[in-house]
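Pasting as-is:
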Amino acid sequence: MRRRSSVSKGRTAGARRKRAVTSLVIRKLRKLKRIVPGCGRSSGADSLLRRTEAYISSLEEQVLLLESLCNLFDEQMKHFC
């Protein structure tokens, strides 16, 4: 039986780790594609990240608008009570 040198073991472990990280990133990108509207199967990672940024900005704007509306209606309801 032949023994592997420690150098080849290090490369193999490093390659396995790299594949594991790559696999994890790919799975996360697939999940992100399902969440972000307008991201089809053909979207590349750079396009997906740009669309994600725009989507997050849009959601933040919606939250600000809803907070403003809630404050406005809250003030108006105080006048009626």
